[in-house]
Design goal:
It is a single chain. This protein has about 220 residues and is an alpha/beta fold. It has one domain (about 45-215): P-loop containing nucleotide triphosphate hydrolases (Rossmann fold), CATH 3.40.50.300. The protein is about 40% helix and about 15% strand. It has eight helices and nine strands. The protein has helices at about 60-70, 80-85, 90-95, 100-115, 135-140, 150-155, 170-190, 205-215, and strands at about 15, 25, 40, 45, 50-55, 75, 120, 140-145, 195-200. Strand 1 and strand 2 (about 25) form a beta hairpin. It is globular and about 50 Å long. The two termini are about 20 Å apart. It binds adenosine-5'-triphosphate, (3R,4S,5R)-3,4,5-trihydroxycyclohex-1-ENE-1-carboxylic acid and magnesium ion. Adenosine-5'-triphosphate binds near residues 79 and 164. Belongs to the shikimate kinase family. Keywords: Amino-acid biosynthesis, Aromatic amino acid biosynthesis, ATP-binding, Cytoplasm, Kinase, Magnesium, Metal-binding, Nucleotide-binding, Transferase. It is found in: Cytoplasm. Catalyzes the specific phosphorylation of the 3-hydroxyl group of shikimic acid using ATP as a cosubstrate. This is Shikimate kinase.
């Protein structure tokens, strides 16, 4: 399904081959993802499914929207889809029904996307870590891990804690420790993504240029 071309060279971005996870190829841009390398086909239908994963605050929604505008692939945000279906915020769902119930809703909503054809989906921070979701996403499309450092995440999440139930009310020291521990715990799952994009090397301008070149 996927192969690495000779042009796939880059200092900051790596791709994990979906069929041979031990093979790591350097890519010249995140948008090699958008090339024919990641077109999936069944029964003569061609479709592109991109699942963006990463820790809370890594920029999945931010980059997913920009990528969608530039590529014209429709953008969806899994948290927002759950909120629409349930008619309440993620915080309210956690408060009223608990995390376990939320994880089930999340897996069920994700499964809806396995049947859609062309999209970019920004997942929740914990999505890959529950209900075998990581394996399923790798099976049904291309998975893209936005890899951020603890320092980047603390900086971004500092101002947005209250909309994220897992970190609401934490002071900055506790937040940094929580992020560090949780990231550590989740890293082995995130690393199963086909593409790893370190967010500190991503900028709007080069992102869009890359799309124009590869889209
Ligand atoms: N490269 C960037 N430049 C400027 N702001 C950014 C960048 N990446 C993310 N942000 C900002 O950081 C905050 C967190 O990003 P975002 O909401 O996209 O994260 P997320 O991965 O979708 O988080 P969650 O899993 O909680 O939904 C947002 O305010 C977003 O606008
Ligand atoms: O990291 C997590 O577990 C979460 C991230 C958010 O996107 C939401 O899905 C929810 O707040 C849980
Ligand atoms: Mg988001």
């Amino acid at each position: 399904m996927v192969s690495c071309s000779v042009a796939d060279r880059c200092s900051s971005l790596t791709m994990h081959h979906s069929l041979a996870h031990d093979k790591i190829c350097k890519l010249n841009s995140p948008f090699t993802i958008h090339s024919s390398l990641h077109i999936f086909a069944t029964n003569n239908n061609i479709f592109m499914r991109y699942f963006i994963i990463g820790f809370m605050g890594s920029g999945k929604t931010y980059w997913g929207k920009q990528w969608s505008e530039a590529s014209e692939l429709p953008f969806f945000d899994l948290d927002e889809e759950i909120e629409k279906k349930e008619g309440k915020s993620i915080s309210a769902i956690f408060a009223e029904k608990g995390e376990e119930a939320f994880r089930k809703m999340e897996a069920d909503m994700l499964a809806v996307f396995y049947k859609k054809d062309n999209f970019i989906l920004s997942c929740g921070g914990g999505t890959p870590c529950f209900h075998n979701n990581m394996k399923q996403m790798n099976k049904h499309g291309a998975t893209i891990y936005l890899q951020s450092t603890v320092a980047e995440l603390v900086q971004r999440l500092h101002a947005e804690k209250e909309t994220r139930p897992l970190i609401a009310g934490m002071n900055d020291d506790v937040l940094a420790e929580f992020i560090s521990n949780k990231l550590n715990e989740r890293s082995s799952v995130y690393s199963q993504a086909m593409y790893h994009l370190p967010t500190r090397y991503m900028h709007t301008d080069n992102f869009q240029k890359i799309i124009r070149r590869h889209g």
